[in-house]
Amino acid sequence: MASTQTLSPRTSMTATTLRTQRAAKLKHAVPLYLMLLPAIAYFVIMTYYPLAHAVLISMQNFRFIGNRPFVGFQNYVDVLSDSEFWSSFANTSILGAGILVIGFVAPIVIALSLNEVLQSWLKRTIQMVIYIPHLFSWVVVGGLWIYMLTPDGGLVNTVLQVLHLPQVQFMTNPNLARWVLILVTVWKEVGFNCILYLAAIVGINPALYESARVDGATRWHEMWHVTIPMLRRTMKVVGLLSIMGLLRLFQQIYVMRNAVIEPKVDVLMTYVYDKGLQQMNIGQATASALLILLFTLLLTLITRRLVQYNEL
Amino acid sequence: MPRFATRVGNTLFVFVNVAFLLLICATMIIPLWNALAVSFSSNLASMQPGIQLWPRHFSLSGYRTIWSVLAIWKPFENSVIVTVVGTVLHVLLSALAGYALAQPRFPGRRALTVFILVTMMIPFEAIMIPVYVTMQQLGLLNTLAALILSGMVSGFSILLMRNFFLSIPGDILESARIDGAGHFRLFWRICLPLSKAGLATVTLFEFVGRWNDILSTILFVNDPSKYTLQVALNALVNSGDSMSSGELVTNNVKMAGIVIAILPLILVYPFVQKYFVKGIFLGSTKE
């Protein structure tokens, strides 16, 4: 551009028109910037600023009133040498692994099973029913299941009593409570993921089934050799999304935990919340949250790598 | 497909398959049905053990107690305000940003898109404590404004709206532009009316998300008069102690609270299925 200006008058004129053109372009874009302004302002104030601020806070002995002495990496050292952090880490891994595995298989099984239902009204009704829990808040889901599982007169224990089986303390037996949390989480989300699979099944080219049938495939063969392989893309998306969600596990624990089971079910995010808002140790809470963010990014990166390798 | 129904093995398979699905459906229906039945029972009857799939001693006292004695109407009102105002703002601002990003060329478009996309990789939970500090600095702690502000736009909604706007045929926009319509006019008069499905999807997502949210309230609000419904309900239903402000919280009261909390969701449910899946796919493809 700079060199064109020193050339003949004709080209310099082009430069001026270029400049006016660019000015016109900018002017044309002003309304667009105005439209983006609220969103950009929001992200600056509520995402980027807190994220940058977090790095600073995590190195301070943070207080709302008074000075905030700089403590270097002391908060990180404190978090990493806190046994509670590591037990939360272990709990997150155990609950997360359970939710990941069962929550991955269950919607596929249900979607395949639903696909074999030939009456469309029945199919639609079942689909609608299993989707319902996804809509409910964790407070509602927690409330419903704590009530169902309560030892004195809850529905499940009443049924056990009728069958002359021993009563079970679901929410005060730490090992059982883990299973309850895993299964209730799967129960809540199974319908949502199931619909993703059903949508993918509908999209499978019918010609594939026809040629399989010509080759003498049974229904079972069709499922194994046509439907399941065609669901691979959806499986990857669902798998990746659930892996990224693992470290965010929070609301169900917050709602359903009690003092007895806390040591076995408290997860990383409840650790952050308790440190920050119960104990008001903002510096350590932020340091641990940044560590978790780092874990999440690493986990996502690794998964993406693995999934891509499988594709080859 | 007549060949399937011919053999006994197939009939058995069909039977087992449907039974399996109905069993799963039962785990979804029974807790709800049970809650509904208990919520309409009298205080005393609701505390008796036994399977309750029908109200015992039909009574509305559960609803009366939770609504007026325990004053859940106040958190309910807060939730309505936060959900309605928050959803309207979210949809409008996300649509505006989505429209801008759907425009073919303007300086800085790429950089701004990346700026918004990156925010989708940062889970809110990971920055909740510094966001709490930010809210404190803005002087918004213990206000409903904090709850409305939190999540006022999202990368997901912006992207979803952008994808909807991109699917509008170019010649419609071109002819409007020739008639001298500016961007705001195009957005309001042409693009929004043509993207009703997109607006419905974002509205439903946001409505359900905000109605069900507890995280922003337990972070930013300490003052019980600003509690939202879910948080107030959590204290009543899941806290373990059965007393609240000197009142014995019986099971019918708890379940009445749960029924109140799911009522708005049941009302929007018919629309949800239609738009949710469509929305998820549009949001995830065409990047």
Compact description:
The complex is a heterodimer of chains A (312) and B (287). Chain A is an all-alpha fold and 312 residues long.
Describe this structure in words.
The complex is a heterodimer of chains A (312) and B (287). With 312 residues, chain A is mainly alpha-helical. Helix content of chain A is 79%, strand content 0%. Chain A has two domains: 56 residues, no CATH class; 238 residues, MetI-like (MetI-like fold), CATH 1.10.3720.10. The N terminus of chain A is likely disordered. Chain B is an all-alpha fold and 287 residues long. Chain B has two domains: 61 residues, no CATH class; 220 residues, MetI-like fold (Orthogonal Bundle). Chain B has a two-stranded antiparallel ribbon. In chain B, a hairpin with a 2-residue loop joins strand 1 and strand 2. The two termini of chain B are 40 Å apart. The model of chain B has no long low-confidence stretch (mean pLDDT 86). At the A-B interface, helix 2, helix 4, helix 5, helix 6 and helix 7 of A face helix 1, helix 4, helix 5, helix 6 and helix 10 of B.
- Unreliable sequence segments of chain A: 1-7
- Largest sheet properties of chain B: 2 strands, antiparallel
In what range is the share of β-strand residues of chain B? under 5%
CATH architecture of the largest domain in chain B: Orthogonal Bundle
Looking at CATH, the homologous superfamily of the largest domain in chain B is MetI-like
- The N- and C-terminal alpha carbons of chain B lie at a distance of 40 Å
Pair with the biggest interface: A-B, 91 and 95 residues
